[in-house]
Amino acid sequence: MKLYPPVSAFCLCALLSLVQTASQVQAQESGTAAPSDQEQKAQALKHARQGQAHLKDKHWKQAIAEFEKAVKLQPQNSMLHYLLSVSFLEDSQGSKAWSEVRKAVLLDMQNRNAINEFLKFWSFFDRQGVLNVGTPEVEVLKLLGPPDSKRELGTETQLTYGFMWLNLQQASLYAVIDTRGLSTEYTKALQTMEFQLGPKWRVGYRLMNGTSALTEYVTTEETVQKYQQMFSTQRLFKLGKEVSAEEMMNRIKNLVEKSYQVAEWNVIQPGENDIIFEWRVAANEKTPAQHEINRIVRGKRDLHRLAYVTRELPLSEGDRKKWIEQLKAAKVVLAHPGKQPLTPEQKEELVKQLTKKSREIIALQLKYIQEGDVEAMQPFFTKRVRDLITKESLARAREQAASATPEELVHSVTIEEVGDGIQAKVKMKNGRTLTTLVPVNRKWEADTIWFK
């Protein structure tokens, strides 16, 4: 199926400026010679008109030749790059089409035709899974080609394709950022939802755009393109100041009812600023039937949304209750606590949270030690010490872990300021330090191995 649309009023308007300039050149032919830039515009218009005629007649290579001449004369004209992209695409030269449409959108973010064409390419890449978290940089470059720009930011790398940024950590994709309308004010979270997923879950996709920050989790054997279960967390920028959680639920309900055949809609836990609800929808031509459970909480600035969705139907009552309880247990907490000063009240609250959470995590770790589960243990520790967690080290710790309790190991937590950030010292009942916790990507990780 061809992607080339009819020439719109927008295309004609973009070329009209060339027409007007050409008329000025013709009017001046009987007098003083026109400036060279006006002559170039007139020649570009001539080639653009011929290119349009070739496109209409489906003579793709001739269209390419004419638009290449026009672009050479007017390299800053977004519409000419867009039409050249269309010509390349019709001639099955996808890589060149992708390169030209990126130039078009960078030159003019109001060029709707170019943006729509760009997003068709981006949707294709998304369906291939190359935009998933963890994709190696070499695979990204293999499919998307050389970026428009590349920046090294310490251990991170940023690749730019048009208005899309790809952030990589340790040479693997970490997040996709759509810069259109994105305000730096909202890229930094004030609060975030803290929740606990089991070890079988992993981050599959991260996206930030002008309205929200979204992270999608899938089980280790699935992908965001093909899943049976998914867990999502979303921060909706500034809506906490504008609408209640209940109002946001009603907006979602209206959108769902427009797109799906709703089999059930149920409010589980009502509340103006903290609400839990669910719905089931029938299959349609785009998606299979699914059951989704949501929680929306109103924060100081943003709205926070958690959602569990399954396509494994029917969802058993036991699993349904488990996910409802999991959503209820999630908390809105201070984001990036290690990168901003804390008030005494905030420190006190953070100590309470870390003490409770540390005991829960230690209980899990004691279980993993008994099972010798290296893969489950490693994510709780910083990358600096993860390689020290091996089958052998867990086997040596098994006897010690058998008699230890979370309450003995985590007796107290102390917040310490270190440079521009903070860390947390976890103290045992005997007064010795168990481990040091440091904030890493909105979660706390142990920076020392506490077991022997």
Automatic annotation (TrEMBL):
Keywords: Signal, TPR repeat. TPR repeats lie at residues 44-77. The keyword Signal applies. Residues 1-27 form the signal peptide. InterPro entries: TPR-like_helical_dom_sf, TPR_rpt. The keyword Signal applies. This is Uncharacterized protein.
